[in-house]
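G., before I forget:
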Amino acid sequence: MRRRSFRPWLVAPAVLAAATAFPQAAVVTGRVVDQASGAALAGVRVAVELSGSGRSVALPAATDASGAFTFDPAQHFSSSERDTEGLSLSLSKEGYRGLTKVRRLPGRGDFRVPPLEFRLEPLTAQPGQTCADGGRLLPLRSQEGRTLFVVPYEVGPSERSREFNDRLLLTLKRRIQTHLQELNVEAAVSDVGLRSLPEKLAAADTERIRACGGTLNALAVAAGTVTPSGSGAELEVESEYVIIPSLPSFRPGSLSIDDRIPLEGLTAAQLGRRLDTLWGRGTLLALAVVEARDALAARDRPRLEKARSWLVAERAQTGAGNETLMHSIAELLRLIDKELPQ
Amino acid sequence: MRRNAAWMLVAALALPARGAQAGDQVMAEFKNARAVTPEVLRHVQNKGVVTEFLDPGDTGLGKSVSYLLWREVLTAISDQEGAGVIVAEAPPGERLVDLIEQDYHEAALRIAAHQQARLALWGAVDAEGDRLFVDTYLTVLTGGRASDLRLRLGAKLLAAPADEKSRIQEAASVFEARLARPRFGLATVEVARAELFERPLIAEGALLVRERPAADAPVLLRAAAGSVLQAVDMKGGWFEVRLPDRRLGYLPAGRQEGSRGTLVALRVPPKWVEANATGVVLRGGPGRDAPAVGRRDLRGRFRVLDMRYRAAQGLWYRIALEQGDGWVAGFAVRPRFSVPAVHLMAGLYRYYAERFKDAAAEFRQFLEAPGVTESAANRAAAQQLLGASLLPAGETKPAWAAFTTAIELTPFDPDVYMVRSVACVGLGRAETALDDVTRALELDPRNARARAFAWSISELAEGRGHPLLQEMSGLRPQRARSSELVRRYGITRPD
């Protein structure tokens, strides 16, 4: 995800007008490219879920040679299901990390969204980027690897942004920790730290986030941008959640949310409510990866069983859909089960 | 000998404690993780706690919301003997959000455990302009005097010798499943401030309305017992009421000021009641002895103007109609409380007291809360609790539907299949019992409960269980399937 340095209060009306040129057809289109090379990716499987529908539909056709896909919500979902505020797309392809993107619709049941763009991270790619701010970040390095670092949202003058991000982290900390407690993750582990990254560290893209997350020994790095959209009455808020730890045979995908919030309505509490479910689930998965990784290294069976129980509990709570998360949980469970005696 | 299946809660159930005080107020003290406030409502078996809500934005509403919901829970369980609710607030000058730190559910557990309570309702409140955002959490205590939420098969053999009854009970008890997890994070409720707080308050005794929300403020009005006051807002633990002369006055929501034990004699009705009934008799007063003033169909929701409790009749509501108003009996309508958590908590109180029909009504109200979309996990839990409440009431068809809906909502939860499987054994639906336990094992082959359950099923199918259970379950024809199941998963006799 490219972070745009954008200050809503400076945007000229002409730019806003240009941004309103949405396609009018109610068919959703998208294109998928390889994040490393930028090349179009054919054969990517796409699953779509409408918020509240509780079911996921795998599109019959994967992406074509130009990486494009199209779907008509009316073909796959009933009219009551289409009366929704958002859609979620989960992309998967052999050799790439999975990606889930949640997109808020311009209006309830209005699928006229601009063409969607996705960049999938190849599993085999060598790290092409390093963390440019690595030296500055080292003092923040997490010792225990249970800290979620958040690139602050720029929502106005620095004082307002600081307040906004402090409130956001407070809200999300409570939502994440209660989520973990509900899954019976013991108190010591569920005490996940949330920390702001220095403001200058802009998350250029997922690859760079991963590089800096590695330097920080982070559990996950979350990054987001706020930009004006449409008539200027709304803000587009993009948020990405990237799990940093991995295992040689398990590389978790990333989760992102694109949202639209009325210009006056962007508050930390509101944004927190929109992010908490994905971030909570992502954090559980990240903790399970850390636990499994350390347990495998130490050949510690009880710890491995503990990681397994968290994953089973998370999966039990998750309704239909949530393809990338479910796929990641299933993959990690398979790996753990292989290590545990029957 | 007659026999039938029964479903029961694994709990020592509270005995009615007649005349026990139903509500109280304590300080929630957390220093060194030790609560130092003594236990209150000591003689009440079925207790819950509502703790002061977190107020991370310093809106001043944390105490207000907790007092309001505490009062609503009191109303919701007002006809249940042996039940009580405690409100726990932060010590003066301290912020609960600082005291609780990251503990959340764990802190709620500590407060509830110290008060020997089974349930703790807590949460956080935030404000954006006139809109309030109320997050609620419900923590259910397990173990000790509290109870796990489990569905267990029981088998009643009427007119059998006591030792035989106990033998059957023991044999049936292996068929049990966890109904719901003990910690709920419920959906955020967004509500206008006025919508939350504006409502009538019923004085059950003489009340002092003061000029300011302070114990030493001048008295504006001495409200007589039975009078109705109109709350327009809350300030901390005080209701702000509009007096007939349009002035604003204040009334404590908890204890009488200066009192260490007496709660303000106040009833807080739900803001709305809902109905879908034909030919409801409207009366001119609260009670069957009041004259009937009309009969009409009631559909939709109706604003509550007054509420009275009549011994042996329960609650009566005066509701606003398109034209005028009228009194309706509580059984003809369903109260709609401010947040779904109140219904969930009230349902659990009813469930613990084995008032299954009332419990089912509350779980339905939780599931049908307007404008709130609970997570699939919360809806599935409520559906299971609904099903478990309907089974003992003999409503097997809707119970079955509720268990099935729970499966549809969380299809990757092994326990949700186990619950329906327990029901299947009791209902003699052997094939589905096996299907469900098979699915539970497919989802989690290491699930100890599912493995033990599968073993018990195979024992019955092999003809080795109690003859009554064999007959009830109808598992004998499933011998080959059950034997294949235990073989496939390497299941052996549990220790």
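Chain A touches chain B at residues 52, 54, 167, 170-171, 173-175, 177-179, 181-182, 184, 187, 190-191, 265, 267, 269-270, 273, 277, 308, 312-313, 315-320, 326, 340, 342 (CB under 8 Å). DSSP finds ten helices and twelve strands in chain A.

More on Monday.
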